[in-house]
Design goal:
CATH topology of the largest domain: Outer membrane lipoprotein wza fold like
Distance between the termini: 30 Å
Largest sheet: 5 strands, mixed
Shape: rod-shaped
Number of strands: 17
Radius of gyration: 27 Å
Strand content: 25-35%
Structural class: alpha+beta
CATH architecture of the largest domain: Roll
Number of domains: 3
Number of helices: 6
Strand order of the largest sheet: 7-6-12-9-10
């Protein structure tokens, strides 16, 4: 059986993994771990004090307006720290033993960019601790023709860092080490997969996605298999090597195929 990120079953694998992560880690930690920034919308409640409930957007300079307290600086603080700060301020002469809760109504301050072969490229919101699969979900998943790698460009301590993820290991092998956290300001690029061509005595001659490790037999299977007139022993591969056309004759069905190869299945004369 062929595994191919561009075949229909990749979406089944990806969404199954995303669903598993949501079940096991249902956005736990997002509220307390999230660092607030300009544009975020917070809902603040104080138990048994409905008059203090407010929904407010963080200003460009990092403040929120709170009843009784006025302007409170929150930029760069975790929501758990803001809860503690508001509790302390309200307890200072306003309310006895205040119980403050904060919910993120809209995540606006932290974003990543996802480009390449995804259904909805563009900006995605980073909601607390957000991993690669969650970003993929926001981007609508892979498009047909996506390759086996994702490249993440990240600025860390003033220097650009490049991280390469193996999508095949993540989706097929369940390698959770590939499902790394995506940070504010990251650029995620999903590569385009290579294409090989199958011609001659196959049922659907055409170009087909060629993943790493693909074989002649796998590409012929994608092309609908042999016709009744095909010669299975005389298959050749036309390959460009150093800008020169090379013909590999009488190849085995388990021969590896690379992008831009042309597999030629001849007619049997017997």
């Amino acid at each position: 059986m062929i595994f191919n990120l561009r075949q229909y079953n990749v979406y089944t694998h990806i969404w199954a993994i995303v669903f598993l992560f949501v079940l096991l880690f249902p956005l736990s930690g997002i509220a307390e771990d999230y660092i607030v920034g300009p544009g975020d919308v917070l809902k603040v409640t104080v138990y048994n004090h409905n008059d203090l409930q407010t929904t407010v957007r963080v200003t460009d300079d990092g403040f929120i307006a709170m009843p009784l307290l006025g302007q409170v600086k929150v930029q760069g603080m975790k929501t758990s720290d803001i809860t503690e700060e508001l509790t302390k301020l309200l307890a200072n002469g306003y309310i006895v033993n205040p119980q403050v809760n904060i919910f993120i109504e809209e995540f606006r301050s932290k974003k990543a960019v996802i480009l390449g072969h995804v259904s909805k490229p563009g900006l995605v919101e980073i909601r607390g601790t957000t991993n690669f699969l969650e970003v993929m979900s926001q981007a609508g998943g892979l498009k047909d023709g996506a390759g086996d790698t994702a490249t993440i460009k990240r600025v860390k301590d003033g220097k650009q860092e490049v991280i390469v993820l193996n999508l095949k290991s993540l989706v097929e092998g369940g390698d959770v080490n590939q499902n790394i956290s995506i940070h504010d300001g990251d650029t995620v690029y999903i590569s385009e997969g290579g294409t090989s061509y199958v011609t001659g005595e196959v049922n659907k001659p055409n170009g087909y996605p060629c993943t790493q490790g693909a074989t002649v037999l796998q590409l012929i299977t994608l092309a609908g298999g042999f016709t009744g007139k095909a010669s299975k022993s005389g298959i050749s591969i036309v390959r460009i090597v150093d800008n020169q056309k090379t013909v590999l004759k009488d190849v085995e069905l388990n021969t590896s195929v690379i992008a831009d190869d042309i597999i030629v299945v001849p007619e049997s004369f017997f």
